[in-house]
Amino acid sequence: xxxxxxxxxxxxxxxxxxxxxxxxxxxxxxxxxHFALHEGERRALIGPNGAGKTTFINxxxxxxxxxxxxxxxxxxxxxxxxxHRRVRLGLVRTFQLTTLLRESSVLENVQLAVxxxxxxxxxxxxxxxxxxxxxxxxxxxxxxxxxxxxADEKVATLAYGRQRLVEIAVALALQPxxxxxxxxxxxxxxxxxxxxxEVLASLPRHxxxxxxxxxxxxxxxxxxxxxxxxxxxxxxxxxPAEIAADPEVREVYLGKRSYA
Length: 260
Prior knowledge:
single chain; alpha/beta; Rossmann fold; 2 domains; globular
């Protein structure tokens, strides 16, 4: 199998890792990863359990510090920046489990993200005028992904699939350059998984999207390019058709089922 390579002929990556590694004692959980994601790209990161996918995302977002290597966002070195600084620069993540304010409304959750983006989250929400503007911006985000009908509902009353969509709306309110989605369909009933795919398909094309996901139907329905991580190293990258047909990927992860 050919070594992983960035999508050819494209401009400077919006997100890039250079020799990124993370060791826990003698164990290399992330091992010399060279990775590039370009503006507007739709990418999936897949691999067997224990491959190091979540560790890789934690390194990108600053929840873990690397043992070696560098991380660049839109050409700037962010390797040592704290998580909140990376968010302000446009690197935004959702989690496997929702982190929403369950007793607040959908609109309030997204509105708070807008206020945080504007630097007003810790200032009593900036007063009535700032709140009104933030509510208007939040409503526009909900409108963009078809959630205005639930704007006034408490998050706790929503089906879990809808809660995952609210979490994506919160992330969009932060105006990301790069959106990292950690298992966006986790816990979503199969009957509702199409809702997640529909929202992902509707995301603005200037945002680069990287998903970690075990639902291969969602992965092959969404991704234009797939990276395969095995034992902390990138095994390969390619189009969905290339990944589905690759014998080594089939052996270590996909098995014999057809996806492409």
